[in-house]
Specification:
The complex is a heterodimer of chains A (300) and B (137). A five-stranded mixed β-sheet of chain A has the order 3-2-1-4-5, with helices on both faces. Chain A has 300 residues and is of the alpha/beta class. Chain A is built from six helices and six strands, in the order ααβαβαβαβββα. Chain A is elongated and about 120 Å long. In chain A, α2 runs antiparallel to α6 and α5 packs across α6. The two termini of chain A are 32 Å apart. Chain B is an alpha+beta fold and 137 residues long. Helix content of chain B is 29%, strand content 44%. Chain B contains two helices and nine strands. In chain B, strands 1, 2, 3, 4, 5, 6, 7, 8 and 9 form a nine-stranded mixed β-sheet that branches. Classes of the chains: A alpha/beta (300), B alpha+beta (137). β6 of chain A pairs parallel with β4 of chain B, so a sheet runs across the interface.
């Protein structure tokens, strides 16, 4: 009996220590998530204005640009870019993103396309390495607080690979998988095509009586689009990174909250068991003493 | 021309300035351009420069931008850049010091792309704080 009591107490102690850790992580995540959400909110005007500018050039000047041109034949090589976290303790956040990426990859492989993988976050990297899949490029170390220059370096790499001809190792299409922050409770992986761009036609519908605004471009529409599109891709990546970071923190907060709750329950159960064991021990001791005393009395 | 024009200066990290203005001056790849209220739709690429906004109250705002775009439509001007900062928020002295140290690095041709971007950014910061100081004098 004595051994089991000690064991129970030891286990309870370790559960309590774990609970402290998970509670601390929950609090950290919930304070950082506000920051991440604010960052995501601040990036909205930039994305909105850029979308407006891109659709203005695309709509008001009928241009054929390498970044928007649809490849005439079926795309052969496809880049799949996905965002995971650097650390665990995020619940199913990374697993969900990886699952979504795997689904996309399988579908494309079925269509006979060649896949190149680009990944953000150590979790995604180790997932691919374990399966001995080639990684075209990887970025680590900023999954929960990305900066704009991180987004730039990713976007520049992707655009550079896209502009290379297919024979020279370039890609024909780029798809991104990120986790969208729907609310504190739901975060869903989303799959989006980054390149070639799908330009949404028209800033607003032109009514019958309304005239099409006549845009003036300086120096000329081609140059403007040349400069605008890389910036647009950067802003897409930047948006994806911020959304994913907020999702990661939300997911972490939720996972850590349920871990803390579970630890709490376990701790209560172990306390109860330990108390029972303690009482059983006392009872046994008493009955031993009583039994011993009775035996002595009989001898006399 | 009468009236004002709505101006938004937008950087990747957030809105740098917004408000109603009497005019906006920025430098495109072709040269300086001034935008007055009710300008025709216009879209141009900017070079790193200091954009000048003449506000409704008659004051002047200087914004350092590292390239990007200016677009005008429906009496709204938006200046889009990866980086944009108000002159009032720039520490001119620190920027100048760092600029000088980078200048040496660039002269010795040991600079990579990142330093060049940083250099360009500091350059516009210094310009903007200079302009703001001249203005307040």
């Amino acid at each position: 009996m004595g051994a089991s009591l000690r064991e129970l107490r030891q286990r309870r102690k370790s559960v309590m220590a774990t609970k402290k850790i998970t509670r601390a992580m929950e609090l950290i995540a919930s304070s950082r998530i506000i920051k991440a959400q604010r960052a995501a909110g601040r990036a909205v005007p930039f994305t909105r204005e850029l979308n407006r500018a891109v659709s203005a050039v695309a709509t008001y000047s009928k241009l054929d640009h390498p970044l928007t041109r649809q490849p005439s034949e079926e795309p052969k090589r496809v880049a799949v870019f996905f965002i995971t976290s650097d650390r665990g303790m995020n619940g199913a956040y990374s697993a969900n993103a990886i699952k979504a990426a795997d689904r996309t990859v399988r579908r494309m492989l079925d269509e006979g396309k060649e896949i190149l993988r680009y990944v953000v976050g150590s979790k995604g990297v180790s997932h691919l390495k374990f399966r001995q899949l080639a990684i075209e490029a990887q970025w680590e170390g900023f999954s929960d607080s990305p900066t704009y220059s991180d987004a730039c370096s990713i976007a520049d790499r992707l655009v550079a690979d896209f502009l290379k001809p297919t024979e020279a190792g370039g890609v024909d299409e780029i798809w991104a998988i990120y986790t969208r922050m729907e609310s504190m409770l739901t975060q869903t992986p989303r799959i989006r095509r980054i390149l070639p761009l799908e330009v949404v036609e028209g800033v607003h519908e032109v009514g019958a009586s309304e005239l099409m605004p006549l845009y003036e471009f300086e120096p000329n529409p081609e140059t403007v689009l040349d400069l605008l599109l890389p910036l647009y891709v950067r802003s897409r990546i930047w948006f994806f990174l911020l959304q994913s970071a907020a999702s990661q923190l939300a997911s972490q907060q939720r996972a850590m909250k349920s871990a803390t709750d579970n630890a709490q329950q376990l701790e209560e159960r172990l306390t109860r068991k330990a108390n029972q064991a303690r009482q059983a021990e006392i009872t046994q001791e008493i009955s031993e003493i009583v039994g011993g005393a009775a035996a002595l009395a009989e001898q006399n | 021309m009468a009236g004002t024009v709505r101006v938004e200066v937008v950087a990747a990290e957030g809105l740098a300035w917004e408000g109603d203005a009497l005019s906006v001056i920025a430098r495109t790849t072709e040269g300086d351009v001034g935008i007055l209220p009710h300008h025709e739709p216009f879209l141009a690429a900017l070079v790193p420069c200091v954009a000048e906004i003449l506000t409704q109250t008659g004051g002047r705002e200087f914004v350092a931008v590292d390239g990007g775009f200016i677009s005008v439509a429906d009496n709204r001007v938006s200046i889009l850049a990866g980086y944009a900062q108000l002159a009032a928020e720039i520490d001119g002295v620190t920027a100048r010091k760092e600029l000088e140290s980078l200048e040496k690095l660039i002269e010795s041709e040991a600079a990579d792309e990142e330093t060049l971007t940083r250099y360009q950014r500091l350059q516009v910061q210094v310009w903007a704080s200079q302009r703001a100081q001249e203005q307040s004098r």
